[in-house]
Amino acid sequence: MHWGLTGADSVNRRAGTAQIEDLGGSPRGRYDNNPQLYRWSGGTPTGSAGRTPTGVYSCGRGATFTLRAPAGPATRTLRVYAGVWMAAGRLTVTVDGASATRTLENREAISTGRFEIRYRAEAGSRLTVTWTATAVHHPTCGNVDLQAATLS
Predict the structure, then answer these.
(1) What are phi and psi of 144, to 5 degrees?
(2) Tens digit of pLDDT for each residue in 99-145?
(3) Nearest to 13 by CA among 31, 35, 40
């Protein structure tokens, strides 16, 4: 999945798949100056894109994005590409009652990260990932941002 190619509500995913669910969160804006560039082919509704610096963001302390993916006895890997701008963010991963967290902070500029989550659980389970702004260091829009996610 990739967010923000053409607008704040723009979502592209691999054609024929919808395993990663976007459960929403705070109101979103779009940006086009991410330091990482994304590309894909075989997508929908946009078939391919090359070197796009786009993503979505949400301003203020408590701003969130929430994703969900299937879980079962086979080991899966979810990669979430997210960041902060003049803020601190906490990634919380929950499956079958167990949880883990990671953080990212930059008080002066943008920082991005690739969060790689390897997991397995009971058949029929779901993995939930929440990306939350825990602190902001800009008076109008310190934020957490989200660019892409992959599942294998």
Answers:
(1) -105, 150
(2) 999 999 999 999 999 999 999 999 999 999 999 999 999 999 999 99
(3) 40
Q: Which residue has the tokens 């659980």?
A: 121
Q: Is the peptide bond before 53 cis (omega within 30 degrees of 0)?
A: no
**Alpha carbon distance, N-terminus to C-terminus of the chain:** 12
Question: 74 forms bridges with which residues in the sheet?
Answer: none
State which fold the 2-151 domain adopts.
Jelly Rolls (2.60.120)
- Counted residue by residue, the chain has a size of 152
Domain spans of the chain? 2-151
DSSP 8-state class, residue 96:
T
Environment class of residue 138 by beta-carbon count within 10 Å: exposed (0-12), middle (13-18) or buried (19+)? Answer: middle
> DSSP letter at 15?
T
**With a threshold of 0.85, does the pTM exceed it?**
yes
C-alpha distances in angstroms, 107 versus 30, 61, 113, 121?
21, 13, 15, 36
DSSP for 52-71, please give it.
E--EEEEESTT-EEEEEEEE
